[in-house]
Amino acid sequence: MKYLEDNSLIFSRYDLFREQKEERTHRFSHDALLQEVAEHVIHGDDEKIITIVDQALEYKRPEEVIREGLIPGMDEVSRLWGEGIYFLPQVVLSADAMLEGITRCEEKMGRPMEKKGKVITHTAEGDIHDIGQLIVNALLRAAGYEVINLGVDVPVDLVVRSCQQHRPILLGGTALMTTTMTAFPRIAARLKHLNLQIPFVCGGGAVNEDFTAGFDLGIWGKEASWAVGIAEDALQGMTWSQIREKWNG
Amino acid sequence: MQLSKTMAYARAEEMMFGTCLYPVTTRRGMCLGGGEVIPEIVVHPRAGSEKSLKTLLREFERGYNDALERCVSIGHPHVCLEIEHVAQMTQKTEWGEDVAAQTVSLMDRYEERYGIVSGCRFTIADLRKPDMVHMRDSDRSQRVLEAIAACARHADMVAIESIGGKEIFDHAIIRNDVTGLLFAQAVLGGRDMQWLWPQIVAIAERHNCLPSGDTSCAHANTAMFMAGGYHGREIPHTLAAISRAISVSNTLVAYECGATGPGKNCAYENPIIKAITGVPVSCEGKSSACAHSDFCGNAIAAVCDLWSNEAVEYHSMFGGTTAAVFTEMLGYDTALMNTAINLGYEKELQACMVNSDRYRDPQSYILCPDIAWEIGKVVVEHHQSLYSRARAAALKCGELIFGDDKLQLTTYEHDALRHYMADLEKLPADEGNFIDLCLERYARIHGFRRESYGL
Amino acid sequence: MPGYMGFVESLTACNVGGEMDEIGVAVDIGTSGIRAQAVDLTSGAVLSTSISLAHPLPGANVVDHLHFALEAGVTVATRMLRTAVNRVVEGLKVPVIAIRRLAVCGNTVQLSLLQGIEVRDLAYTGARKLATLGVVKPDRRGVSIQAGILQGLELNETCQVLIPPAVCHTIGADALAMVLQSGILQEQQTALITDYGTNAEMALYHNGRIITASAAAGPAIEGQQISCGMLAAPGAVTDLQLMRNLQYRLLVLDEQMQVVQGPVVDLERASLVSSNNAQVKGITGTGVVAALCEGIQAGLIELPCIQTPDACLHLGRKLSLTEEDLQEAGKAFGAIRAGHVTLCHEAGIGYGDIHVVYMAGAAGTYVDPVKAMFMGWVPAYTKKIVQVGNTSLKMARHLVMDPAQLDVMQRLADRIRPDHYVLAASDTFKKMYMLELAYWTEGMPMTSYRTMLTRYGVKAFPETVSAPEILQAGAIGDLGNPGVQELSVVSDPGEILLLSIEGCTACSGCVDACPQSALELSFKENRPVVQLYHSRCAGVSCKRCEHVCPEKVMVLSDFFMIR
Ligand code: B12
Ligand code: SF4
Ligand code: SF4
């Protein structure tokens, strides 16, 4: 039997076309090194990324490395997560890698890069359960926020002082123990007293909506991803009570 | 039971539309596979018409009357009417029988009035839902056999779309589990047919009716449907192709039990079946777009003996009712094929059909006559068991897909197929061991009971 | 008190005299209840067994108990716990005068509360917080004291009380008991033991090293925090037996805590296939393991979804497991596997290198080990599984027979302490737990899970699972031989307090909202009074009563404070 050499007039392979196009959308930069930077973010490679970023910085401005390599890579990770292809552990790895890269670029710039806004997160006084906070941090960073991570077992005092000093758009708190979540209303009261109307999102297994509804500034953060949505709202200038109304109740 | 050990066709090039090695003749003397392709029209009653016997009879009468009427109004020499049972017709034997009797008298009336020779095939609904009833020992299995007998009294041909193994198949297909497909289709589906088909053959022969054939509609067509078009990603197309290759193992059982053909229209595996058995086969492609989409609209006609439309619901269109419209289209398609035969251009037309779709998709590729023949070859070579021939077919199918550079695969399809091949390689060679493995793995799947398959 | 004791002593003198055998009492204080056994000190035979179906303090876990202790005062908590111990000991039906020795075993929180020592170091975990509070950690060495010192315990003043040591706040006497009583230290090959309870204490025995940790799995292991869950008590579903298709026979605990056959159910539908007389009230941890395992194997669960028409796994007309339950269970089971993997990593071996696994705790004893393995409680590569029963009660029995065991425990505690692994400080655990969360709550496939293991530098899991040999070392049930008498059951070992609440309108909202039926409303001199059954109350982590009170006058801790 005779076979055609070229079938293109008989049928079109849209499946191949789509795959090639998807591959093209996996091009984040025309520059090979920046492309590699993005790919290392996507693969969450926080060791190798430093080498690549350093190489890129030899002939690219740090701003470019961030804008054309690190950020597009992280955006892709968020997309993959949204589509259910990536899972949280992978997102966290990627966020770590991106952060490493950004820190390197910032060193080169001699100043911190412009971020969307500052968010302070902490795990309550007396509590060491920080996995929830870890996820929140990763997602906020992935979305372009500067996260000031106060860590675990953070005294009320330190949280309040940090808020005074950094004036974040949002404060996040995690508590998994019923004995430790009581720190949150105390923090809120102190902030109010200082007239710092910072929306205070509280999450973690022990915290529920009724609890945060019990004190001013308090907003219940059911899932880590809420942190990003709420930060966007805070950035838009919504007050804590507007945010609470929107996200809770 | 003897499993096929040899190929009916020694070479793929000998396979051609319109002719087969073992043609059959209907009660009215219509020869199938004897040098001419015949249209096979299937009309489906509208929902609601099955409410009473009266409305149902009326609906079928309209449908097939319109079909015959269109044949005579534009000059189709032959037509085959296929009636696929709605559940009620199998559940209530009298209903099925009444429809059969009515159809036959309609055909007689047309033959008498216009001299048109037609044939009819009745396809019984397989009521035995494996997850609900015992496949062999239940009221429903009885019902199915009774319905076959009732139709065989009138019909030229009886057929069934048996559904053994469906419970495991459904579980496996959404999990990309080839092992499950092999078990469901070959081991369970095949065993179920080895139980069912000798009975069908005996009944049909008693009534001088043709025990025509079966199909892996419940399995391989489900896979084809799920694979969808170029954008479909519910399951990889390569998995659907493998499921098709596997389906040969079970569909073949009908012929090993005495079925004579023509093979059921929706059995896309028919080119492979024809290569092995030499019986006439009915096929459908572009003509069945009304029922489902496939990648082999033209190529699947390459070796067909009947040309069908799967099923079209009875409705009116600008050009008449769907029954009339589809009969017209099928008839012109067959007229083209028959013209080619008579002009001696059949090889050329076959080449056109094959070239049209060969490289569209792995699913169409494996049904092209030469490839189909090669798959058939490994099936007969591995005649030790239903399982071994199915596994061989699946492996060969993958090998052939990988083996032709012109058949381009997306990375996604490529990776998926590599993965299935690796899974297949790892499986035991022996059916007994394979069954042990599967009984362990699938024992708790919803609705599965091994007794249904004599295991 | 001395008067009372005097009376008792005189009774001994005149009634029983020298004929009365000397009796020892072994007590195990668990987070969900107290068990005691009377032992003949001469023969070692168990004379009787008594258990309580609840813990006297409000709450479902040790933190709730601590929280209560902090709010109501440690003295109050201690008094309530001692009273409850009295009630359970009373159930043994042996004369108090004959009790020469009492040995307790249990976790650090329970023993510290019973002993009435500092507990704040247990309630808060951060070092910073503890420093601010000026808390000095008590040493928690094993002690042998006279009952007279522990005011409120209804025992002879001179009765010897043995309180065993703790390694740290998570590895208490119960964990030491587990290591000693299970026989794990006799193993030649790598062995792992876990107490399948809220705290999930675990120990890896490898090359002579005992590495311990606590994975804090949470109460779902025992059936709590599951919508229709309950502790192992009469009426609890403990297992499922496949009948055919999706039909399963429930196995339930009867009044005597024996496993009996229950109704046959269809996992997909809220109906009974066939019923019998067995009472079914809820599902306990082992039942959850069985139901989820069957659900997964039958293809009804595709993590994180339940693929039945109403997304529930049904166990008859009333009971069902929801997708949230599945997540809760997953978070708990995941903590166990993450803990196991982390311990292996710390020891420099792979998760697949564990040869034998010991399962301790009530859940570890009642659970079907094969199902437990399927659900990740036990490495799927283990060659042998030993179910060891309640080692805490067994330890207490040994202590009471042989007080020198106290030193044995102390030596073990000293040996373990340097090798105790603080999961809170472990990056590996954090990562592993995140993986588990992704697996259970996001549906991360096992293939990605394995890839991540490599990324984390954790040794790969083997490819094929094993079919382990299974040994039941836990005698009959987890109580061992219950003794000649019928088991006594104290259903409510706690206090019941009345509170007249200012501003209460007697709307009964709190009573109706209480999931534990812990509240009752009545009137006293025409004023509404609310009554709290402490042992039933789920404690500060619940507080539903407070949330629903329209007047906002219900304050749970007011009950704790009225003393
Ligand atoms: C993992 C775990 C641990 C790990 C912690 C590791 C770590 N670095 O975090 C370890 C093993 C170390 C641990 C220790 C302890 N634990 Co622990 N632990 C758990 C466990 C199993 C899971 C908690 C968890 O991480 N969940 C996953 C995270 C991701 O969920 P999450 O924090 O709730 O966060 C989600 C949301 O809430 C939200 N979120 C969280 N924060 C924020 C913030 C913002 C801004 C937003 C928007 C959202 C948000 O987003 C997240 C994802 O969507 C739970 C039991 C359980 N089944 O839940 C017990 C539990 C929390 N632990 C408990 C206890 C008591 C302890 C211990 C004190 C004692 C013990 N039994 O061992 C010790 C402390 C030891 C020490 N040295 O300090 C108790 C608390 C009980 C209570 N009533 O308070 C629990 C409930 C278990 C139990 N025993 O009953 N624990
Ligand atoms: S509702 Fe109130 S009384 Fe009832 S269990 Fe919850 S906290 Fe306790
Ligand atoms: S809900 Fe409040 S007002 Fe109503 S009975 Fe309870 S305490 Fe009283």
Describe the structure.
The complex is a heterotrimer of chains A (249), B (455) and C (563). In chain A, 53% of the residues lie in helices and 9% in strands. Chain A is of the alpha/beta class and 249 residues long. In chain A, β1, α6 (131-142) and β2 form a beta-alpha-beta unit. In chain A, α7 (156-166) runs parallel beside α8. The mean pLDDT of chain A is 92. With 455 residues, chain B is of the alpha/beta class. Chain B has one domain. Chain B has helices at 53-74, 87-91, 93-114, 139-152, 166-173, 178-206, 217-227, 237-256, 270-277, 322-343, 346-357, 362-365, 369-381, 386-403, 411-426, 431-442, and strands at 19-25, 31-34, 38-44, 78-84, 117-124, 157-160, 210-211, 282-284, 306-308, 312-313, 316-317, 320-321. In chain B, the strands form 3 sheets. In chain B, strands 3, 4, 5, 6, 7, 8, 9 and 10 form an 8-stranded parallel β-sheet that branches. Chain B has a two-stranded antiparallel sheet with strand order 1-2. The model of chain B has no long low-confidence stretch (mean pLDDT 95). Chain C has 18 helices and 25 strands. Chain C has a 7-stranded mixed β-sheet with strand order 5-6-4-1-2-3-22, sandwiched between helices. A 6-stranded mixed β-sheet of chain C has the order 9-8-7-19-20-21, with helices on both faces. The longest helix of chain C is centred in the middle third of the chain and has 25 residues, at 323-347. Chain C starts with a helix and ends with a helix. The B-C interface holds B 131, 171, 444-449 and C 242, 244-246, 268, 294, 297-300. The structure holds cobalamin and iron/sulfur cluster (2 copies).
The sequence of SSEs of chain A as H and E is: HHHHHEHEHEHEHEHH
Integer average pLDDT of chain A: 92
* Overall CATH class of the largest domain in chain A: Alpha Beta
Question: Roughly what percent helix of chain B?
Answer: 40-55%
Given as residue ranges, the uncertain stretches of chain B (5+ residues, pLDDT < 50) are: none
Q: Mind telling me the CATH superfamily name of the largest domain in chain A?
A: Cobalamin-binding domain
- Overall mean pLDDT score of chain B? 95
The number of distinct β-strands of chain A equals 5
Can you tell me the overall shape of chain A?
A: elongated
The global form of chain B is globular
Cα Rg of chain B? 21 Å
Unreliable sequence segments of chain A = none
Give the spatial strand order of the biggest sheet of chain A. 2-1-3-4-5
